[in-house]
Amino acid sequence: MTDTATAARRPGEQALSALGLGAPALDPADASSHTFPDGGRWRTEIPSCEGPEALAVILKESSRLDVPIHRISQGSGVWMLTDAEITEMVEATAERDIELCLFTGPRGTWDIGGSVRSDSRGGGLRARGHDAVAGCIEDAVRATELGVKCLLVADEGVLWTLHRARTSGIIPADTTLKVSALIGPVNPAAYAVYERLGADSLNVPSDLTLDHLTEIRRVSAAPMDMYIEAPDDLGGYIRMYEVAELIRRGAPLYLKFGLSKAPAIYPWGTHLRDVTLDTARERVRRGRLALDLLARHGADGDMAPLGTRLPGTLNRFPVETATA
Questions:
Q1: What pTM does this model have?
Q2: What is the rounded distance in angstroms from the CA atom of residue 36 to the CA atom of residue 308?
Q3: Cα dist. 184→126, 189, 287, 317, 324 in Å?
Q4: 130 CB contacts (<8 Å, ≥6 apart)?
């Protein structure tokens, strides 16, 4: 494990120590022992990129602010993009060697079922019924045929089905599957189950404590995604000053640069163009702020190389071969 993984400087540490208010020493046992396959401990992700125009804004702004990007993800879904739009996004990200991740299919909040709008939230964002699962799978096949290599899922059944699909060759074997924050696991047992169902990275809710991350890392090495700043509908949490410690505890970790106090834009359309482009631009700037803070705390040296996307060897449930 690298020195920065165990001894990154914490916010205000020198000044507080000089005043006799220093924090207790970090416990090396809390640190994650896991990395990405290349040895890196963190990657970056810009979420909510809802089409080619937003993508162009993100790429331009990332160049201007020198924000490295490993992954760009979209939230409205494959079905909200034309073939031409998907192809344009695939080509633009391929030129920069960035992984493009598109969301699969219908989900609970867009379904006709009323329970998701009840106080209990019913089945949540999951795919409701056979037809919803089928829609997700159709999105996955269509997207991968157009060159998309990462798919976002918000349902355990869809995740397992897509894992079986890539095992059997229905979609490419190197397709990566990302679990959405909409159903993110909140305990180590659930995290391990998602990994075994086929997840290659898992978005955990941004309100998990540092101890929760350590607990997860004791049972799973699957990459973790976390909003450093979460959208308001996911809590609006801002954990900027914890970035170095989030990496120390949660590696391998995708730092997601979300945005609080921003209007919801899913499902996206041109009627939301201005706010979509403005918020895309600001997400990149938020990324620059987080990276600057990492540098000030001496914790920016363990970034995975740009262009890397695969998660390494993970634990899976056995996949049985289907019989006629």
A1: 0.92
A2: 9
A3: 12, 12, 22, 19, 35
A4: none
On whether the CB atoms of residues 74 and 50 are closer than 8 A, the answer is yes
Question: What tens-digit pLDDT sequence spans the chain (324 residues)?
Answer: 555 555 677 888 888 888 888 888 888 999 999 999 999 999 999 999 999 999 999 999 999 999 999 999 999 999 999 999 999 999 999 999 999 999 998 765 666 665 555 554 555 577 888 988 999 999 999 999 999 999 999 999 999 999 999 999 999 999 999 999 888 899 999 999 999 999 999 999 999 999 999 999 999 999 999 999 988 888 888 999 999 999 999 999 999 999 998 888 888 888 989 989 999 999 999 999 999 999 998 899 999 999 999 999 999 999 987 654
Q: Decide: 208 and 186 in contact? Cβ < 8 Å.
A: yes
Query: Position of tokens 């705390």?
Result: 297
DSSP string, 185-252: --SHHHHHHHHHHT-SEEE--TT--HHHHHHHHTT--S-EEEEEE--GGGT--B-GGGHHHHHHHH-S
CB 232 within 8 A of CB 262: yes
Tell me the C-alpha distance between 216 and 17, whole Å.
31
DSSP category for residue 305: P
d(CA 258, CA 49): 11
CA distances (Å), origin 50, targets 21, 74, 154, 267: 46, 5, 17, 9
- Give the burial string for 243-256 (b: 16+ CB within 10 Å, else e): bbbbbbbbbbbbbb
- Residue whose C-alpha is closest to residue 271's, from 261, 282, 263: 263
29: buried, middle or exposed (CB in 10 Å: 19+, 13-18, 0-12)? exposed
Q: How far apart, in whole angstroms, are the C-alpha atoms of residue 247 and residue 240?
A: 12
